[in-house]
Each structure stands twice: as structure tokens, then as C-alpha cells.
Amino acid sequence: MKPRLLDLFCCQGGAAEGYASAGFDVVGIDINAQPHYPYEFHQADALTFPLDGFDAYHASPPCQARSDLQKQSKIAYEEFVPRIRERLRATGRPYVIENVEGATDDEEAQLIDPIMLCGTMFPGLRVIRHRLFEANFPIVAPAHPKHPLVFTHDKRKAHYGRLNQDESYVQVTGGGNCTIANKRAAMGVPWMTGHGANEAIPPAYTEYVGGFLMAEVERRNRAAA
């Protein structure tokens, strides 16, 4: 049997697809209905859903409180990272918490010793999308290549009009930088809606992290045998 992984705050399943490729049997939890989620799904609150019966956990809590947009709007959002970390630590099992780069700005809510992943680290991706990953086991990040130019509709940019969005790196955001087809292609998420891609992490990230997580699950299982 494959190790079971609980995917908390799962959205449309970017993280799930990567962990499935790494060998996990994935179950998703989200407070909102997620009809595009590609694996077993339960609509529930990630902060109260029972955690028993799983070998490992991934959580991608809402990041509004740490985002660049929040810094501009000054709107106060709930901090989810400390609450979900407390729950995951209590299981005694390996876990991963993912969030945006701003999640290191506040001592009380920050991720602990995270690695950073970027789309340039993974052949086939065409998106920058820096994301941080905290884990209670060691993960080594790949080398971080220099960022390429990114397709833009902004005429103020020197490279406006010089790039083909079907081939170049693109911005996958709600700002309409590229087509939905290119959002999906750039992230490796062909099943997602445009909004789903805006919120997702590329599966390549969690397939990479999932290799370390699988090794940790197997190590613990051997130690317990």
C-alpha cells in the first residue's frame, strides 16, 4: 500500500499532483468545494478535520496575511500557519507547510527554516513563483538559476512585445498577464481553471519535496519495525 498523505487547504490540487507522482495516496481537504481536485476530496475545515490515519501531511494555508497585496491594502487577515503547525506537530508524523515568501516576515507567524523553490529550478516550467516549504525533516533545495525575462503586457517594460507568451516565462496571477492555456502550461496543471492556477503551486515543487518526504516516511517505518 502507498503511504497516505493528507493535503490540507488543497484548492484545485497542485500540491496533490506532485505528491501523487512521488508515490503517495493523496486525500484533499478544503473548506470550499473543489470539483477540479483530481483525487479523493472532502469539503471540511482543515483546522478541525481529524488527522489520524495518515502517514504524512502537507498544508498550504491561505497566504493573504503574508502577501504583497496585503502589505499595500493593510487589511488584517487571519494567520493560519501557527495554528496548523501546532496540529501537525501533535501527530508526531512528518509534515510540510507551504506559503509565500512573506511568511518569514513575522516572528510569531513565520515558517521555520524553510527552503525556497522557484520555477527556474525545474525543467519544463515557465513560471518564477517563489514558494517556501517548512518541514520537520531535512530538505535540500536545488540550485537557483538566474531568472529569465517574463512575458508582459506592460508597455513600460523594456522587453514589451519582444516575447512570445506561448514559449516564454509568464506571470500566473489574476492580472491577466497571459492566457489560461499558458497559465496551465507554464505551471503543469492542465486540469485547473485560470483562478485555480493563480492560487496553485506547480506539481513539480511537491514532487521534488515529496521525494524527501517519502524517504522520511520510509525511514520512520523502518525505525518502528
Task: Provide the descriptors you would attach to this structure in a database record.
6 helices, single chain, alpha/beta, Rossmann fold, 7 strands, globular, 225 residues
Radius of gyration: 18 Å
The largest beta-sheet arranges its strands as 3-2-1-4-5-7-6
Beta-strand residue fraction: 5-15%
Unreliable residue stretches: 67-77
Summed up, the domain count is 1
CATH superfamily: Vaccinia Virus protein VP39
Shape descriptor: globular
CATH architectural type:
3-Layer(aba) Sandwich
> So how many helices?
6
Give the end-to-end Cα distance, rounded to a whole number of Å.
16 Å
Number of strands: 7
* CATH domain class name: Alpha Beta
Mean pLDDT across all amino acids:
92
Describe this structure in words.
With 225 residues, the chain is an alpha/beta fold. The protein has one domain (4-143, 202-224): Rossmann fold (3-Layer(aba) Sandwich), CATH 3.40.50.150. 27% of the residues lie in helices and 14% in strands. It contains 6 helices and 7 strands, in the order βαβββααβββααα. It has helices at 14-21, 68-73, 81-91, 180-187, 194-199, 203-224, and strands at 4-8, 25-30, 40-43, 56-59, 95-99, 115-117, 131-135. It has a 7-stranded mixed beta sheet with strand order 3-2-1-4-5-7-6, sandwiched between helices. Helix 1 (14-21) crosses helix 6. The chain is globular and about 60 Å long. Mean pLDDT is 92; it is low at 67-77.
Secondary-structure blueprint:
Blueprint: E1 4-8, H1 14-21, E2 25-30, E3 40-43, E4 56-59, H2 68-73, H3 81-91, E5 95-99, E6 115-117, E7 131-135, H4 180-187, H5 194-199, H6 203-224
Parallel strand pairs: 1-2, 1-4, 2-3, 4-5
Antiparallel strand pairs: 5-7, 6-7
